[in-house]
User: What shape does this take?
Amino acid sequence: MTKRKTKQLLAALLSYLAIHCVSASDRLEPGKYIPSLFDKRYSAPFTVQKLTDSSYVAFVSAHNATFYVGERGVLLIDTTLHDTAPALLSAVQSVTSLPITTVIYSHYHMDHVSGANIISENAEGNGTKINFVATEAVASQIKRHGNKIPTPTTILKNSGEEFEFEGMKVRVHVPFMGGGHSTDNSIIYLPEEKLLHYVDLIHPELLFPFFNLGLYDVAAAEKSLHEVLGMDWDYVNGGHGNIGSKKDVKELLAYLDDLKSAVRNSLSSVSFADHIHQGPGVGVYSWIRSYDEAIAEYVRQNLQNKYGHLPNFDAIIPSHATAIKEYITLY
Ligand SMILES: [Zn+2]
Assistant: This one.
């Protein structure tokens, strides 16, 4: 092999490793993002990042789960989707041969918990009985929707209630209105690890929360973000996106302020009367849609300078502008 060819091969190998190599052995410095995570999560079956001596985050496709490796077993927080759970199992098994013995559900949204059936079946095959832990709110949602996932074997009745996993404290907070995302969303806190698992609100590196996927109560979201800032932690797993820190929470609060201010300005600049048109097939909803589009365009232009460089800016602003307009006008 020529020297040039060897060099080319080496460069290709290094670039492959940079994209695909898991960081299961090196801890991530608090406040830093995992490089090229977007590429990794959609090109490899799973990616694992070590956070502390015992805590890790697994990324499978669009979803993240947290796991803690104890002396005798593994604590898993959220199970991702039914279809991605086998990759999640592989992610855990890439770090330890210990079985998953405890699973905590953050909230009853199937994209974060439907993988529990696969995790449970796998455990049964290995002769392990998993302790499924959830708050009363999550347990009641599971029941209300027909017990499609393993029902909790430990139910936490009060917000802030603690339980122990192999001697390590795990505290589960239920923020007001589930932090605005769903009534049952929980903040799962591992104080000794300085780690939070609080999904579907903070999207580190991506910034934009998914307003159009069920975030209804902005005041509750802001309240919970301020609560989270008052807690002692270094890392947050937001369920999607990169690993976050308090900087991400502060940036999200600033973005919500900017968004509200832009929408308030749009309400005094864009007139609903200009969008009332008579004609065949036209009605109130057509007017509202046209008005919302004009507001979204106003907001997009207003925020372009500060946020236009971020991925998804053009895609997400219309839904965010409409959600905030509804919030401001209704509350
Ligand atoms: Zn959710």
Q: What stands out?
A: The mean pLDDT is 91.
